[in-house]
Structures are given as structure tokens and as C-alpha cells.
Design goal:
- It is a single chain.
- The chain is mostly helical and 96 residues long.
- It has four helices and no strands.
- The protein is elongated and about 50 Å long.
- The two termini are 40 Å apart.
Length: 96
């Protein structure tokens, strides 16, 4: 069983163990939300093998270099990176 007071003591929190930010004033960064959505779109396009996504003019170079499966892997990894960066920006982990 986890002793909450002991955990608070070990991480040097004074007073009741609570979140250090006031959630009433907290807002997500809209740029981060847009990046997160773009990353999910890229992941979905790669995972579901959408023809309009893979056959687009901008994706042709990657398809020519890596093949269709390689392009899907590339866009899946790229989408993951963009989604993680977007979530980090949206939640304030990365600030600019």
C-alpha cells in the first residue's frame, strides 16, 4: 500500500499533497493541439494505407526513394514524432 504522506515527504512537498498548478487557469496551447492532430493524421494515413495520402504530390519523392511500404513506415514515424511534440507543446512541457 502506498503511503501518500510519505511520498509527499520524500519529494519535499509541503502541505497537502496536491498538484503544483491551478487547473482553473490552465489552458492548452492551440498550436500543440494542431500539431497533435496533424501527427495523428499522418499516422492514420500510413496505418490505413490511404491512396490519397501515399499518392499525393508531396509524398511521391519518399515513395520513389523508399517504396510504398517504406514511405508508410516513414510517415508513421514522422507522425509519431509530430504527435508527441504537439502533445508536449499542448500540455506545456515544451515552451517557446
Amino acid at each position: 500500500m502506498l503511503n501518500v504522506e510519505l511520498v509527499c515527504e520524500q519529494i519535499h512537498m509541503s502541505g497537502p499533497c496536491s498538484m503544483p498548478i491551478d487547473l482553473k487557469d490552465w489552458q492548452m496551447n492551440p498550436i500543440g493541439i494542431l500539431l497533435f492532430a496533424a501527427g495523428l493524421f499522418s499516422i492514420a494515413g500510413a496505418a490505413f494505407d490511404w491512396d490519397f495520402f501515399i499518392n499525393s504530390r508531396k509524398a511521391r519523392l519518399i515513395v520513389a526513394l523508399c517504396g510504398r511500404i517504406g514511405a508508410r513506415i516513414f510517415y508513421g514515424i514522422l507522425g509519431l514524432v509530430i504527435a508527441v511534440a504537439g502533445a508536449s507543446i499542448a500540455f506545456g512541457i515544451i515552451t517557446g
